[in-house]
Amino acid sequence: MDMQNVVVGARGVAAEDVLAVARGGARVEISADALEGVARARDVIDALAAKPEPVYGVSTGFGALAVRHISPELRAQLQRSLVRSHAAGMGPRVEREVVRALAFLRLKTLASGRTGVRPVVVETMAAILNAGITPVVHEYGSLGCSGDLAPLAHCAQVLMGEGEAEGPDGVVRPVADLLAEHGIEPVELREKEGLALINGTDGMLGMLVMACADLAALFTAADVTAALTLEALLGTDRVLAPELHVIRPHPGQAASADNMLRVLAGSGLTGHHQDDAPRVQDAYSIRCAPQVAGAGRDTLAHARLVADRELAAAIDNPVVIDTGGPEGARVESNGNFHGAPVGYVLDFLAIAAADLASIAERRTDRLLDKNRSHGLPPFLADDPGVDSGLMIAQYTQAALVSEMKRLAVPASVDSIPSSAMQEDHVSMGWSAARKLRTAVDALTRVVAVEMFAATRALEIRTTGTELRPAAASAAVLAAVRAAGIPGPGRDRFLAPDLEAAYVFVRDGSLVRAAESVTGPLA
């Protein structure tokens, strides 16, 4: 486990910080400046709590119940009741990395000095993260507006010493026992604090940050597999020439074309499209690979811009505003908790991922079809008819692509009213994030099947001939075989081989093998 430290200040965090805490186990520190700002904002809340006038989140109920003024002696109970009642999630447990990202991003907002919690709340949240205690959060419960309410409430329960959590050993146990073992005192929440703990887009944002990192790697992997397929089909690399992409100046397209061109450098297979069955042009799935993958890259760039803005944000309602003017600090209600900006790009990425999977599946099918593969055996089988080769591997790939098309249906347009029509328009950003995570995993598998087919096709194409693949392609072939993923031959139990190919793509081995020749790819 990477035990680097991530310092949380008052101005937000970077995507790399989220990944370090969520996936790398990095320790969290709160800067002294941030703690001072937290204390100043708390002074504002304490002053408002002492006044007779009702202030939302401080001395009133919540949502449609905000019309009731809560007397001081009931306010601690109000905060406890809020957290307990909102910890209403159902369904399977959410993955550990998602929960750590969720908790870390809520901590980031609390440290901004905009929410009005006490410093002890921030410090205790950091201690829980550093102890490796991960709240049990469930799949269903967030509408992506007024924050990821149920998921965050399950995290807030842990801060109170209630509920269940996963310990650093991976075992789910009562929270009270886990906190005691690590010397962490539960927090008795005061005015505003329960609301501040649950009112943010942190779950959907954490999943967006991780999906962006995963998709960036997958776009590069898809460029490599597209190049391998082009080579195995004796296609032309002339369509990858930089001057063709300058005249349509989408940066993602240029990056993908350059990646493919570098992988194919020195190939003895490209350009043979005019030999036996002359082709004026390659099929769209080959020729337009940079355009499709490049559009996805540009979509990813926009999503990262939105994520960066959210990472710099302080999302809560109400918030403490201090412009430094003569009127002093004040507390204002707002709608910044609405997840629309995040929900839109989560949906957009699911569309881009589905289309990239679709074009990769079409390339795989072309490798397996003897009528379109320019001399390769049917289904890349050893003895076609006796052997089925990779026929059903393509079925599996097609099933994944079909599932991804369903996952590309936008969640963010599916608003449903809640809280007695007070919260009458919601983002469904959490749902968009959950389906994107499924889509990213499916895309990894689709790319793995194309890699499996393309490497087999390259070996078949070059065995017993003078033709030689590009140096980068040869490096990929060698790495694939070294990983125990087999080449051409008689039919065998295919599922374990496909799973090994999936791991090879997912852990970055495919891209690293190509880069051992090309140098860093975009």
TrEMBL record:
GO terms for cellular component: cytoplasm. It is found in: Cytoplasm. GO terms for molecular function: histidine ammonia-lyase activity; phenylalanine ammonia-lyase activity. GO terms for biological process: cinnamic acid biosynthetic process; L-histidine catabolic process to glutamate and formamide; L-histidine catabolic process to glutamate and formate; protein homotetramerization. Coiled coil: none annotated. It catalyses: L-histidine = trans-urocanate + NH4(+). The modification 2,3-didehydroalanine (Ser) is found at residue 146. Its main location: cytoplasm. Keywords: Cytoplasm, Histidine metabolism, Lyase. CDD domains: PAL-HAL. Contains an active site 4-methylidene-imidazol-5-one (MIO), which is formed autocatalytically by cyclization and dehydration of residues Cys-Ser-Gly. Belongs to the PAL/histidase family. This is Histidine ammonia-lyase. It comes from Actinacidiphila yanglinensis. The lineage of its organism: Bacteria, Bacillati, Actinomycetota, Actinomycetes, Kitasatosporales.
